[in-house]
Prior knowledge:
Layout: H1 12-34, E1 56-62, E2 68-76, H2 79-84, E3 96-110, E4 119-124, E5 130-134, E6 145-158, H3 161-165, E7 172-175
Parallel strand pairs: 2-3
Antiparallel strand pairs: 1-2, 1-7, 3-6, 4-5, 4-6
Amino acid sequence: MLNRRPGSSVQPQTGIRLAACRYAIAVILAGFVGAGWAVSAQGVTEPNGPQAVLPEETLVIVGVHGVRHVFHVEVARTPQQQTTGLMFRKDVPPESGMLFVWGHPIESQMWMKNTLVPLDMVFIDAAGSVSRIVENTVPQSLAIIASRGPVVATLELRGGITSKLGIVVGDHVLCRALGTMP
């Protein structure tokens, strides 16, 4: 039975149809969420598998003594690409990674949700210098990994590679996506 206030223009059948429509919408949305497709206000869906390989660019990290380390990185530019990142990937080759380009300096905050392998996170400031490195992040962790200052990009590399290659804070990053490639 439909409860109506005096003077209400909603007819009993219309009210029932509205309730049925609301219920149908709730069921559909619940199905999307249950399938791992929660939609945010920005239209970004929660990933439920690895994304296709993104466009790649060459990225060079130049050490303080002139040693150059060359990587071929995927560039994540859109909110959806950045949300998915390296989630669900089973391997990150030593010469590969993913570069998250923020567009303007921000406090970068990352996590390891649905990330299956340890990563080194390299935070890059507006001058194109490495401002912070967090090595061997913990797979699947929801702990926030922050840049601790404004950065224009975050680079994710195979866990342990920065230590192995001697990459340190102050090294310079060259990449077209950052506007630092000569």
